[in-house]
Amino acid sequence: MTRQPEQTPSIVPFDEDNTPLARAVAEQLRARAAVRFNDPLPRPADTRVMVVANQKGGVGKTTTTVNLAAALAQQGLRVLVVDLDPQGNASTALSIEHRRGVLSSYDVLVDSTPLVDAVQPHPEIAGLFVVPATIDLAGAEIELVNVMSRESRLRKALAGHPLVHGESEDRFDYVLIDCPPSLGLLTLNALVGGEEMLIPIQAEYYALEGLGQLLETVEMVRTHLNPGLSVSTILITMYDARTRLAAGVADEVREHFASQVLKTSIPRSVRVSEAPSYGQSVMTYDPGSPGALSYLEAARELANKGADQ
Ligand code: ADP
Ligand code: MG
Fold first, then answer.
1. Which of 107, 162, 167 has the alpha carbon at shortest distance from 133?
2. Rounded mean pLDDT of the chain?
């Protein structure tokens, strides 16, 4: 008996964006986006400085910063991203030069370089600007310890930028600060420098663990350093509609933070995680994907919420 050559099973990668449910959601979102794309987003009355923070790593801070910033800018607003994570992932995802020697958030915080000197325009998206982070920033936590007013360096730098607040037509509408996954001096600088916090929460079992500590830190900052800080926005990320766990976590978050949680949550989607390796946000990498459409919708909600305030 002759043996058949063994067949190599063809590997069909499971594509989360291509399930019937994902397609249905995408279709619905696309229809809604098409209707609404025509009305431009409202400009806020003043620059909104938003700190994207959560001391847990991997919850979607950088992804949220990058994609919300791109989505806001694509819808006509002027946005500055400040990368405060030594990993520089936001800079990478936005294709912004951040090798050693490039003026960066490190120079702004440690050497008092004016913020305006470290700003680079995004190569493709008009109205989007980035202050990159270089690996030097890893040393800043320690280097800043003996520096005067070490926790308000970013605040001072933002106040000195001519397009943050003020009357100019070119004023930034949003400044989004991407924080590292810790509650050290870098995150503290962001909390002291910002007015609103945007906390991404990953829809998974331990989601709320550590949130208490984060909120205590915010309270401490409010009492001693920045009374104007508020937790204005919570975004549920990496939501997997197929699991009851994700739904349960999302419900719990909504119960605790009814007025802060955006109605839109961001689905888990391979396109979102692939985009950074092409130096892109998902907004340009695959604009019709559920992840991109969700960030577009989240940006719209954020902008409209801000206009109501
Ligand atoms: P953080 O900045 O909080 O550490 P990231 O934004 O870097 O988190 O996200 C952690 C990982 O999860 C990254 O590999 C990112 O590509 C991936 N990721 C983030 N959001 C999604 C999503 N909606 N779907 C799939 N993967 C995601
Ligand atoms: Mg990050």
1. 107
2. 90
